[in-house]
């Protein structure tokens, strides 16, 4: 049982290290803010989650300590990290950051255009 627990712990931590390394390579090599945000939010989330799962399994299976704090951290990170990456990319798009020339489609342009037509800005100058 101890050998199986050790194998499971090592596998989850190694997977986390691999995903975290892919995140670093993606942030360094990718051409624009949108692809970098994608690399940072998706693979970093999987990397950190795998490491946290490995730590949780270590404390639970080897030390006999069931950590609610680690489970909450895993759940919180799983929920908030992809949403944060999406919101940062959307804020960059709305503020006018241009994607790379390699970008094929722009599906968000039509959505924002429709939203502006439905809710036109009401900038009134005070006298």
Provide structural commentary.
It is a single chain. The protein has about 130 residues and is an all-alpha fold. Helix content is about 75%, strand content about 0%. The protein contains four helices and no strands. Helix 1 packs antiparallel against helix 2 and helix 2 runs antiparallel to helix 3. It is elongated, with a radius of gyration of 21 Å. The model has no long low-confidence stretch (mean pLDDT about 90).
In short:
This protein has four helices and no strands.
Helix/strand layout:
Elements: H1 2-29, H2 33-62, H3 68-94, H4 107-118
Helix pairs in contact: 1-2, 2-3
- Report the β-strand fraction as a percent range: under 5%
Determine the fraction of residues in helical runs and give it as a percent range.
Answer: over 70%
Structural class: mainly alpha
Query: Shape, please?
Result: elongated
Number of helical segments with 4 or more residues:
4
Task: Describe the sheet with the most strands.
Answer: none
Radius of gyration: 21 Å
The helix/strand series, from N terminus to C terminus, equals HHHH
For the secondary structure, the number of strands is 0
Overall mean pLDDT score? Answer: 89
Spans of at least 5 consecutive residues with low confidence: none
Distance between the termini: 78 Å
Features:
single chain, 127 residues, mainly alpha, 76% helix
